[in-house]
Design brief:
mainly alpha, 0% strand, 83% helix
């Protein structure tokens, strides 16, 4: 059952992204209590970037080619999404634990779909053809 679920790139994205989100969420909220939230978000984002770039390319989108250019493009996508997250934080101006939690939920709701759709676009055509065929049947 789990193996069948992991044939779908969206499920794999949620696993990699979920782990990254939990870790970076805790870092953001924890640091946001002692340093400005925009800096806390930046630190959490940078710490999660390498995990997401490499985890997404190989595990989520099963990219087997394309070279470093695709990884750079994916990292660039995440930097654009970072800017959107920073904009939300700037507009909300969270102060305290619960406002930080709410702001983080808003940022996640906006950025998660953008990251997935952007990743699918960037790594399109670079996956293992057999894995891609299976995925098309399940999505």
């Amino acid at each position: 059952m789990i193996k069948k679920l992991l044939e779908n790139s969206l499920v794999r994205f949620l696993v990699v992204g979920g782990i990254n989100t939990l870790v970076t969420y805790a870092i953001f909220v924890g640091l946001g209590l002692v340093i400005p939230p925009s800096i806390a978000y930046l630190v959490a984002f940078v710490l999660g970037l390498a995990w997401v770039v490499f985890g997404s390319s190989r595990f989520v989108f099963r990219a087997s080619g394309g070279g470093p250019g695709r990884l750079v493009a994916f990292a660039a996508l995440y930097l654009i999404v970072l800017g959107l997250g920073q904009l939300v934080i700037h507009l909300v101006k969270p102060d305290g634990f619960w406002p930080l939690v709410l702001t983080s939920v808003i940022v996640i709701a906006i950025t998660t779909p953008l990251n997935y759709l952007g990743g699918r676009f960037i790594f399109r055509g670079q996956s293992d053809p057999a894995a891609h065929d299976k995925e098309e049947l399940t999505t």
